[in-house]
Amino acid sequence: MKQFCCLLLCALLALLPIAGSAELKSGSSGEEVRLLQQRLITLGLLEGTADGAYGKKTESAVKEAQRLLAFAGQPLTPTGIANDMTLALLFDESAENALLTLCEGSSGQRVKEVQNRLIDLKLLEPPADGDYGADTALAVQQFQQIMTQLSAFVTRTDGVLDTASQQLLFSDLSIYHYPAPVCFDDSQPLSLTGDYLYGDACLVMEATSGRVLFEKSSRQPMYPASTTKILTLLLALETADLNATVTIPASAAEVPADSSLVPVTPGERMTMEDLLHGLMIRSGNDAANAVATLCCGSVEAFVEKMNQKAAALGANDTHFVNPHGYHAQEHRTTAYDLALMARAGLTNADFCRIVTCLHYTMQPTAKRDALAVGCTHELFDPQSEFYIPYAAGIKSGYTSMAGFCYVGAAQTQQGTLIAVVLHAPTRNRAWMDLDRLFSYGYAALSEAAE
Is 283 a catalytic residue? Predict the structure, then answer.
């Protein structure tokens, strides 16, 4: 069918005044342009519809086709003008492999798809920006080398994605036992290993006993981002009166400009209950500073108590320098330590109520109307493919250095689990890790009970 379509297009082009007459270029229009666009769309070089108008997008697509053909050895210069040779090669099936090849300098939707696949294979850091640069080429080369080691048929190992390499990249790699999350068999939860998780550090713990059921680099110091606020909340609940009306201190405004905010304003009056919900649901750095000052007189004094509390819990690899988790070189903890903090929190009814609250309305103040805050994480949405029905809180976090982080709890008749994922490449991939950690945990508990 594909061959028939190519022949038909070539025949139609032969009837049109293209070859031996005028070139197609920016400003051209008509049926011959529409057929050219149709071919470029088929090759994945042009997005949208074939409208017969030779605009900037068509020019860029032609230029990319010429670049690929030149890369394959054809005597073409990437001008964006469709001359006779360009048109002939575009509709020549023998040149199709060259036109479908991706290499450094390629861009567009096909590159994004390749990059997302490489992210899934843990070979490339996000985002998928659609530009095939040196990082993408290196990731492709690593993939090709790994597949060579796994005894797959690989046509090249130079970081260039020809059609054979693309087909292999998007194939079912589990048949080669490729060590990546997308190749994991979720029907066999107890076969989980660290290779099948996106997070650089992960753990699942049985909450009642504190027994670690699974771990991956769980004692490795990492940046925790806003999961720091778990300890902020825990310490605040040991110090503050939830029903007390407090005045937001000046320190609430003393946060970096790109901080997440509730927002709360110095001089504003509200209950500590409202402030703590803003801290956890909105992940407000302004609220964290306010809580710290209200509880201990200053942010610095509160942070000192946080580190003392962490040590008392056995979180010996934790050192915090602020109460909110905004990136700082010295601000670190581990997956294991965060699980200990969450475990301590789950023994406090107010902690449990706040970290499992998905929707809350902060009462109006003199500076604003009532403020509804809510959690939109996909793992709590029954309509999402990442929904985890037994998930119960606790706290997410993200910075460019920390990646996506999450400390979560799960509750079933089998018991309560705590799972931690640190430095996952994206939020949805962290949810996949979380689901696998919980599945492993409950499978391990079932096996132990038999």
Answer: yes
Token digits for 86? Answer: 């360009």
Q: Determine which one of 283, 309, 396, 439 is catalytic.
A: 283
Q: Which two tokens stand for residue 215?
A: 């771990």
Q: Where are the alpha helices (DSSP H) in 121-214?
A: 134-149, 163-169
- As given in the structure block, the two tokens for residue 147 are 């597949």
345/352 Cα distance (integer angstroms) = 7
Q: What is the CA radius of gyration of the chain?
A: 28
Length of the chain: 450
**376, 195 in Cβ contact below 8 A?**
no
Q: Is the confidence at residue 125, as pLDDT, over 60?
A: yes
Helix (H) or strand (E) holding 287: helix 285-296
* 173: Cβ contacts below 8 Å, ≥ 6 apart: 121, 180, 182, 183
The residue annotated as part of the active site, out of 122, 216, 229, 309, is 229
Nearest to 223 by CA among 342, 337, 336, 327: 327
Q: How many helices (H) and strands (E) does the chain have?
A: 15, 9
pLDDT at 261 exceeding the cut of 60: yes
Q: What is the mean pLDDT of residues 2-20?
A: 48
CA distances from 1 to 5, 8, 14, 42, 309 (A): 6, 10, 20, 13, 69
Residue 165, pLDDT > 60, answer: yes
Whether 434 and 388 have beta carbons less than 8 Å apart is answered as: yes
Question: What is the rounded average pLDDT of the residues 86-103?
Answer: 93
Q: Is 229 a catalytic residue?
A: yes
Pairing of strands 269-271, 245-247: antiparallel
- Given 218, 226, 251, 260, the catalytic residue: 226
Confirm whether 367 is a catalytic residue.
Answer: no
The reported pLDDT for the residue numbered 14 is: 52
Q: Tokens 């490449």 appear where? A: 425
Mean pLDDT across 373-391: 96
Per residue in 34-44, pLDDT (tens digit) is 999 999 999 98
Residues contacting residue 321 through CB under 8 Å, at least 6 positions apart? 303, 328, 330, 331
- Is the pLDDT reported for residue 17 higher than 50? no
Residue 418: CA atoms inside 13 Å, Cβ hemisphere, count? 28
Of 303, 305, 319, 314, the C-alpha closest to 341 is: 314
Residues 128-154: tens digit of each pLDDT: 999 999 999 999 999 999 999 998 888
